[in-house]
Each structure stands twice: as structure tokens, then as C-alpha cells.
What does this fold into?
Amino acid sequence: MKKIDTLANDIYDLLENGTKSPKQEHLFAMASEIVDSMKKQLWTGTTPSKKGKLRMSNIGKPCTRALWYDINGDEKAERLTPQTKLKFIVGDIVESVILYLVKESGHTVTDQQKEVELQGIKGHIDAVIDGELVDVKSSSSYGMRKFKEGTLPQDDPFGYIGQISGYATALGKKSGTFLAFDKSAGEIAVYKHDDIDDSNKKIKQVLSDTSQVEPPERAFGTVPERNTKKAKLGINCSYCSHKQSCWEDKGLTLGFKSSRPVFYVGKQEHEVDF
It folds into this structure.
């Protein structure tokens, strides 16, 4: 029986040497997952709600204020762009292909998309591989370094650690493993996170914060622009869909640097109100 420690090399070996007898059930399962992903991203049969709900996938967010807007609604929230939706679709397809390769390389995959629950908050794990809880992530080359070097806990803007901690707590596991794929380099990395915190306390706090009448304090402040020292939003806030409502009282304006948007805080010359 194979262990997850050899997973990356086993997938590389499979891709280099191929297989004489690919298992049809693995191929059909992958195809079915891709179809489900397309339905999820493109189906327009129902009207989307302006309010969201807490899921295991978002309780790890470092900003509870953003979760408050998710749950309570935000009329000014940015809609997902076609480009972002396409990235989500590609990410889902990559996950299905990676898990197919895991199976074909001889590793044991169980509990794929199993639903878990903590304090009424539900989520679906990606899989259990060789007995280890696994979350599959598509990554940039910059993000991949954190998985390879084990520095994700020190720089986790998307709350991946909180997400897998929730899954692990629900399953009674003491560790969680990330199977990361570098979209640029085609590289695979396996990072096991052993320092799992019980997520019940975190969830209790999130439920309390998101049930308040007013949003909690901002998790992030502004950062100075390198040359001008003007106050602008950092990366977390810049990519947040709630930035217009969140920073409205501070005078959020939109500017551009090298054709890329920059969100300034406080009225600036030559910038436009956002």
C-alpha cells in the first residue's frame, strides 16, 4: 500500500511512463466531476441570492468583516468577472485531473467530496488520500513556494489553513495535507500541516461576529505606495469584492499604475471616485 509521501513522484512517473491499462471507472469519474463543475459555474436556472452563507471553505478568511458582508448582504459587492469565473472552472478541472492521476498512480482515494459539518456550518472535503485528509489547490508560482517551503501558515491571505482545520476538526483528524499544483510550471507539491487547531472556537466567534447589526472592525489597514507614500489598499483588500462598502467612509478612489488598478484611501488628485 502506497503512502502519501511518494505521491508527487508517483504522479511524475505515471506521466513519464504512461499506463497500459487505465481504469475506465477513474476516467468516467473525472468526466462526471468536470461536467458538475461546468453546471455549477454556468447554470442560471435560479436567481442568485444577494446574501451568502457560512461554509467551511470561507471560515478561514482572515477578515471577519468580509464574512459579515457575505452573510448580511452588500448591494455594492462586485460581481464575479467572466475572467474570474473561468479561473474557477479551470481550477475545478485541474482538481479533477489531479485526483484522477492520484488514483491511476496507485494511491487510495476515498471520501471524495464528502460532506462534513461543525456547528451547523457545512462543507465538502476534496478527498482522503492514503488515509490523509487532502485539499487540492491550484497555485501561482509565488504561492507554490509557500507549499514547498512550509511557510503557508505565516502568509495565508486566502485562509487555507483555517479551511483545512475546519475539515480536520469535523473528521477528528490532527493534520491536513495540501496537494498543490503550480499552474505555470506544471509542478506538484505535497505539504502536510500538523499544527491543526480545534475550529469550534473560531466558528463560534465567526457566528457571533456575523450576527451583529454592524460589521466588525477591518482586519487590514492601508499600506503606503512605494514612491508616493499615498495610502492605498493592500492585496487582501484590493481583491475583496466588498471593498467599496467597507472603505466608503474613508473615501475610496481608483487610480492606475502601469495600466493596473490601484485603490487609494482618501481623496487624491487625478483619481476617480470608486
